[in-house]
Specification:
The protein has a 5-stranded mixed beta sheet. Strands 16-15-14-17-18 form a 5-stranded antiparallel beta sheet. It has a 4-stranded antiparallel beta sheet with strand order 5-4-7-8. α1 packs antiparallel against α2. It contains 25 helices and 24 strands. The longest helix is centred in the N-terminal third of the chain and has 24 residues. The chain has 5 domains: 60 residues, Helix hairpin bin (Helix Hairpins, Orthogonal Bundle); 230 residues, D-amino Acid Aminotransferase, Chain A, domain 1; 106 residues, Nucleic acid-binding proteins (OB fold (Dihydrolipoamide Acetyltransferase, E2P)); 146 residues, DNA polymerase, domain 1 (Orthogonal Bundle); 69 residues, Rossmann fold. By secondary structure, it is an alpha+beta fold. The structure holds 2-(butylsulfanyl)adenosine.
């Protein structure tokens, strides 16, 4: 029996590992997310019932429970070196000259790979199991970030044994944040009024240095392996073959790695990638050129902190110079004032840039950006343009420091600095600039998704006072819209239809659209799933909200504050009276079997096991593979075996197919 369970657990683990590898390393998933979740859930339940069988390399052990107090230190037995940089073809030729001279031959080849813009990490596998993970630190000693690294799904907790695995195998590579995850994270940060990360590298480093691995787990970091550290037995005699072996071990390796003999070929590969880099979904800041054979590397040796067998070719930073035509201050939906530099149009990595955010007034002061200044702009991770430098030497005479506003540039009301001292806000809840932003947000794609209700129409609706709050949108008529500029009958009626359609948007969109501080669409979905109805959410007290996984105390406070405000209560009332029917899409809490745990045994008569399992899942029941006190029903077919005995012993209700169908149809 015990062996049986142990075997089941191991089977599940190897299935899950295989699917992790297919999904995260090879990008070739074979099963749906739901099927994956089902396997994972089964494993989790089995392990809960048999905690002694939990091993550190189990896929369930990726996320640890408790935040750390601080990081321990790990000494690198083999130092983690840095790489010398070059910036042009001539410097690459010089490097090649030095290699040829030291090796006293022309018989060598290079491996050329991209220089990933993340942070270096050293993974220590002992007998194939991931034991520790350390940052580079000063090259000799790094931080122990094992708990965080284990949450990265591209990193195997146990290596595949397609080849003989050295007892001690240190794998080095780069942890990075893919562009899309970076964009999502920053969007969330902005929604939550937190400072966004400047680029994906900072975001990756920040995420890996979190003391709470549960947050790291949500950051979608990834990994590519590119070198070994300590090894108990050599794997291969050159770098290229080593990377091939990495693949056999289930480690993710850059698929675009190339070999080249002549330096001109190396240069060509570098230049090609300089242009092609936007095709990757992560950032690279150059190329790394490595002598392939290890015996030749030994001859070349190292100087100081960098090996002589390796060089980086750094891409020119994607920057541009332009002039600040003016600095304006935008008022956000919750009143935050943001300084924006309006720029003379300039091309930067394929797009025309005319504006750059200065983030906040502290940043503006630090850079001392002034109207008329020549500035260097850069795309943060090729996504948001920002001002990185002011060319003070080019500053025209008689410029003035930008005056930080003391009143709202839109409504002239008093402004106040937030307690954390970074943001300045307009304090007038009736400020029309805030209203415009709130309306844009309300109609936005991740909220009520009202097509055709764009910025310029919103500007007019607010200016003409046709709309003073969200509910007024639902009172608009085609005639009223036609009276506005650039509004023909047809487009007016399209707008009205789109507004009408939004009345049946699901609950989470409604919650998100309200623009409750700190509550973006993701949190709105969590709330909608949890409460299932607006009434229940409105009735929730702070303790109930705080108890929800992923809703922190500050978010809970913000939600309570919002729903306890009389004006907001009125607004919601008005929206509901206008015919909005926010309903929950999910039926999580409406399934007939919510919270019920089933175990199946024996041969079923009328249904396949998978069909029954699906019925249970559809009604939000759970399936466990072994009987315990927690089991609610044992569904027994013919020849049930030992599970029936156990159920009888524990007093678990035993049902047959017919009884099961009765429960479902009840
Ligand atoms: S090899 C001694 N390969 O670049 C060479 N490093 O500036 C060991 N990096 O600390 C590293 N992509 O974080 C290597 N394909 C690649 C790389 C790479 C990025 C980073 C690594 C290293 C830094 C040096």
């Amino acid at each position: 029996m015990a062996d049986d369970i142990a075997q089941q657990i191991e089977d599940l683990r190897s299935q899950i590992r295989r699917h992790d590898h297919l999904y995260y390393v090879l990008s070739q998933p074979e099963i749906s997310d739901q099927e994956y979740d089902r396997l994972f859930e089964q494993l989790k339940q089995l392990e809960q019932q048999h905690p002694l069988l939990i091993t550190p390399d189990s896929p369930t052990q990726r996320v640890s429970g408790q935040p750390l107090e601080g990081f321990e230190k790990i000494a690198h037995t083999i130092p983690m070196l840095s790489i010398n940089n070059t910036y042009n073809a001539n410097e690459l030729r010089d490097f090649n000259g030095r290699v040829a001279k030291s090796l006293e031959t022309n018989d060598y080849e290079y491996v050329v790979e991209s220089k990933i813009d993340g942070l270096a990490i050293s993974l220590r596998y002992e007998n194939g199991i991931l034991k520790t993970a350390a940052t580079r630190g000063d090259g000799n000693t790094g931080d122990d970030v094992t708990a965080n690294v284990k949450t990265i799904k591209a990193i195997p907790l146990a290596l595949l044994d397609n080849i003989v695995i050295p007892g001690i195998l240190e794998i080095r590579g780069e942890v990075f944040m893919p562009n899309e995850s970076f964009a999502q994270l920053n969007k969330l940060k902005e929604e939550n009024e937190e400072q966004p990360f400047a680029n994906p590298r900072n975001a990756a480093a920040g995420s890996l240095k979190l003391l709470d691995a549960r947050i790291t787990a949500r950051r979608n970091l990834s990994f590519l392996a590119y070198a070994t550290g300590e090894l108990s037995e050599p794997l291969e005699s050159d770098h290229y073959q080593t990377l091939e072996q990495f693949k056999q071990l289930g480690l993710p390796v850059n698929p675009y790695i190339k070999r080249a003999k002549a330096i001109d070929d190396v240069i060509k590969i570098c230049m090609d990638w300089q242009n092609a880099r936007p095709k990757l979904d992560y950032q690279i800041d150059g190329m790394v050129i490595k002598v392939n054979r290890f015996d030749q590397r030994d001859i070349l040796g190292a100087t100081g902190r960098a090996p002589k067998w390796c060089i980086a070719y750094k891409f020119p930073a994607e920057q541009a110079e332009t002039i600040v035509e003016s600095i304006t201050v935008q008022v956000g939906k919750s009143g935050i004032l943001t300084p924006v530099a309006n720029l003379k149009a300039v091309q930067l990595s394929g797009t025309t840039v005319q504006r750059a955010s200065l983030h906040n007034f502290d940043q503006l002061r630090r850079l001392d950006v002034r109207q008329g200044d020549t500035v260097v702009i850069e795309k943060a991770g090729e996504i948001i343009p920002q001002v990185v430098e002011v060319k003070k030497e080019l500053r025209p005479a008689r410029t003035e420091e930008f005056a930080i506003p003391t009143t709202c540039p839109n409504c002239d009301s008093q402004v106040r600095k937030d307690d954390n001292g970074v943001y300045i806000r307009c304090t007038n809840p009736g400020c029309s600039a805030q209203l415009k932003e709130r309306l844009k947000y309300f109609a936005g794609r991740d909220q009520m998704d009202i097509e055709n209700l764009g910025s310029s129409l919103i500007e007019q609706l607010v200016a003409t006072q046709l709309v003073k709050n969200f509910a007024d949108l639902y009172k608009l008529s085609t005639d009223q819209l036609v009276s506005l500029e650039r509004m023909a009958e047809k487009s007016a009626s399209n707008v009205i239809t789109a507004i009408e359609k939004s009345k049946t948007q699901p609950l989470w969109r409604f919650i998100a659209a309200l623009g409750i501080p700190l509550i973006g669409s993701q949190s709105a979905q969590i709330l909608a799933d949890h409460f299932g109805s607006l009434e229940k959410l409105l009735a929730a007290d702070i303790e109930t909200l705080e108890a929800i996984d992923q809703i922190g105390p500050i978010m809970a406070q913000s939600i309570c504050k919002y729903f306890n405000n009389d004006k907001n209560k009125q607004l919601i009332e008005q929206l509901l009276n206008s015919g909005l029917e926010p309903k929950c899409e999910q039926k999580t809490s409406t399934g007939k079997l919510t919270g019920r745990i089933f175990v199946l045994t024996g041969t079923l008569q009328n249904y396949k096991r998978s069909e029954i399992e699906k019925m249970i899942k559809d009604e939000d029941g759970k399936i466990s593979s072994s009987v315990s006190k927690k089991t609610d029903y044992l569904l027994a077919g013919e020849n049930p075996g030992s599970k029936l005995d156990k159920a009888n012993k524990l007093g678990v209700k035993v049902i047959d197919e017919k009884e099961f169908l009765n429960i479902i149809e009840e």
